[in-house]
Design a protein that fits this description.
4 strands, mainly alpha, 254 residues, 12 helices, two-stranded antiparallel ribbon
Length: 254
């Protein structure tokens, strides 16, 4: 899972759920989570990227390499049986099984589907689902107000931009407005209700909100899914020791 360049730019950080299957990944999280939440996320992004490149590696390259080695061993064993080669084959098969699980997790996260066929590996299914979703999300053409198709990319962008401008603007520039202070029927919050709303969220409220989210749907602005915080809550949820509730409710929330 190494970053690739997109139009000459380095790919942005993306959390991968297949990292959770690697036994060394919890150490990366523990070492990064030593400061306040915002700083910890920054540290984790750097350390996880380095760990991904230096240790975890590209799962597709590992899969290809393992299959080639297993194929070579099986050919050698067919010609001349060897206990050493048989033991090595078993070890490589276990490693391949782990890589296949990681590959399945990778495509499951990218496809963003919530169901799977029990008992079968779904790598091909997830791969196709990802490609279909990516194709469906593209806008290649759009009809204008008179029903004519717009195919040029720049023209499509301009049409959509003008459409949003029209939605969020009004021609009633001189429309009168009622002074809200003159309305006696307008509902108001009591002082107690205002204090509850404006108060800082407790750790229990944050935890309940976190567990109400689906683990690996769309990530937050920090590119970390709710499932990451759910998995490592004993490490990342110790707000009292490394930060405050404001961290989870402010810029660093998931």
């Amino acid at each position: 899972m190494t970053p690739r360049a997109i139009n000459g730019r380095k790919r942005l950080f993306r959390f991968q759920s297949c990292w959770l299957l690697d036994p060394s990944f919890p150490n990366v999280v523990s070492q990064a989570w030593r400061d306040s939440l915002v700083d910890a996320i920054g540290n984790f992004t750097i350390e996880a990227s380095a760990w991904n490149k230096g240790k975890f590696g590209n799962i597709f390259a590992k899969k290809k390499n393992l299959l080639a080695r297993i194929n070579g061993i099986q050919r050698a064993v067919a010609l001349k049986p060897s206990n050493f080669l048989l033991n090595l084959e078993n070890d490589l098969l276990k490693e391949l099984d782990s890589v296949l699980n990681q590959e399945e997790e990778f495509w499951a996260l990218k496809s963003r589907v919530n169901w799977m066929i029990q008992g079968d590996r779904n790598t091909a299914f997830y791969h196709v689902s990802t490609l279909v979703r990516r194709k469906r999300n593209q806008i290649l053409a759009i009809k204008d107000n008179v029903g004519e198709w717009i195919n040029e990319e720049d023209s499509v962008k301009e049409f959509i931009r003008k459409g949003f401008i029209g939605i969020y603007s009004t021609s009633l520039a001189n429309a009168s407005r009622i002074n809200p202070t003159l309305s006696h029927s307008q509902p108001r919050l009591s002082d107690v209700e205002r204090d509850i709303i404006s108060g800082v969220a407790s750790e229990e409220e944050i935890r309940n909100a976190m567990w109400s989210l689906k683990p690996f749907k769309a990530p937050g602005p920090d590119e970390l899914h709710a499932g990451f915080f759910q998995k490592f809550w004993p490490v990342v949820g110790g707000i009292g020791d490394r930060g405050s509730e404001e961290d989870f409710c402010g810029e660093g929330n998931a």
